[in-house]
């Protein structure tokens, strides 16, 4: 047995009555009441106590009960010296009972001292205290040696069994508390992760839509403010308003898709990519064995495809674009490749419209890379031999 097991206290959960069932609490109370009643009867019935002696006997019994209650409290607080002082007071009370001829109360107090010391004190202290109490009982008991030996062994085993029971109960309660704390922490972590996920989806959708709308509306405002003849600028203003309206509709559709993804109700990725590439005049290629994808992986594919095609439209207008969806074993890949700009952006548009190049899906490709890493995947982007390429791979 290790040294720490001899010097360490029993767990507080083992010394406390918290977690006891109602029936077990009532059984413990009934036992204490019976023991106290036996002590009181022995003190009153003892012939040595007469007159004021009866009152002194009752006072001694009350003192033993108070000392035992205080012993339970101090051991629960792991206070060694006060506990030993209270145990010494019980031993002294037992000696006084025996000297006055009240052998039954003395035997009960010695036995109780042996059992509770073994149950509630560190082993290095409990064993000597139990041996002292049982030795005092054995020396002063008027019974024959066989009865004394049987009682001593029974009390020693009772104390040890109660200690083992208390330690098992304390360990079980501590493990239960740790499990509850772990479940609570896990639930809080999951809640924070879900909040971050929702915030990321809303940010990506709204940042892309609202920033683009803001640029178009600002361009329309400047055209109206700076133009002397609004009729001449009517077509450009209308273009900006229509573009802002289209961005609003796109943002609404993206928000619906994000909400559907959060509920796990998204349409197949291929259908989305087919519609997206058709709207952007891009070519879609699908390789590998088609299968249903997890919602998070499907959403990442959607967002990266949307961001990559938006960047092509802003930075490489007129480029030929190929989108390849690859179903591999244990993962799914997406590649968006363009051939480079075929025409320069129009220079006759108002200045703020050029800021459209800074708008995108929230964090742009940086945000998409972080999204991929959260899923255990990777995102690579950079110049190719011709144009620009974005590659995404996520487990699925």
Task: Write the topology of this structure.
Layout: H1 3-7, H2 12-15, H3 22-45, H4 52-76, H5 80-99, H6 103-120, H7 123-140, H8 145-226, H9 234-262, H10 269-279, E1 283-288, H11 295-315, E2 321-328, E3 331-338, H12 364-374, E4 378-383, E5 388-395
Parallel strand pairs: 1-2
Antiparallel strand pairs: 2-3, 3-5, 4-5
What does this structure look like?
With 396 residues, the chain is α+β, with helices and mostly antiparallel strands. It contains twelve helices and five strands. A five-stranded mixed β-sheet has the order 1-2-3-5-4. Strand 2 and strand 3 (331-338) form a beta hairpin. Helix 4 (52-76) runs antiparallel to helix 5 (80-99) and helix 10 (269-279) runs parallel beside helix 11. The longest helix has 82 residues, at 145-226. The two termini are 51 Å apart.
